[in-house]
Design brief:
This protein is mostly beta strands and 128 residues long. It contains 1 helix and 11 strands, in the order βββββββββαββ. The chain has one helix at residues 101-104; strands spanning 2-7, 16-19, 22-32, 41-48, 54-60, 64-68, 70-80, 84-88, 94-97, 112-118, 121-127. 14% of the residues are buried.
């Protein structure tokens, strides 16, 4: 569910945007002005929030971009396996969540974590 649409020139470093259907975080951007009757061009480097894949693209400055809804929540680890089983600390819902390997090694049962719900996909971001 997209809540907001911004122009490419309004995206700043750290802004979340959707690129090719993938939620990403802007890591760097350059705005170049063109000639007398031209339009500004924006070169954006972004990294996927879920996948970690780098994307570099150039768009006109007036290009409209979608901003994804990112819901940051806290949960308690119930078990660690291929996926991590979590209990949400607000509504006590149990869910299976993907977890990066570097964070998974730090987790143990009954530890608290911060997980993000990005457009329906959930991922653990850090241990609290």
């Amino acid at each position: 569910m997209v809540l907001k649409i911004i122009e490419a020139t309004q995206a700043k470093v750290g802004t979340n945007i959707i690129v090719d259907g993938t939620p990403c975080v802007v890591k760097s951007m350059d705005i170049s002005k063109t000639g007398k009757h031209g339009h500004a061009k924006v070169r954006i480097e972004a990294v996927g929030i879920i996948t970690g894949q780098k994307k570099v693209f150039v768009v006109p400055g007036h290009e409209r971009m979608e901003v994804p809804m990112v819901d940051k929540r806290k949960g308690q680890v119930l078990s660690v396996g291929d996926n991590v089983s979590l209990m949400d600390l607000e509504n006590f819902e149990t869910l299976e969540v993907a977890c990066p390997e570097e964070i998974k090694s730090e987790l143990e049962e009954n530890s608290n974590v911060e997980y993000w719900d990005v457009e329906g996909e959930k991922i653990i971001k850090r241990k609290l």
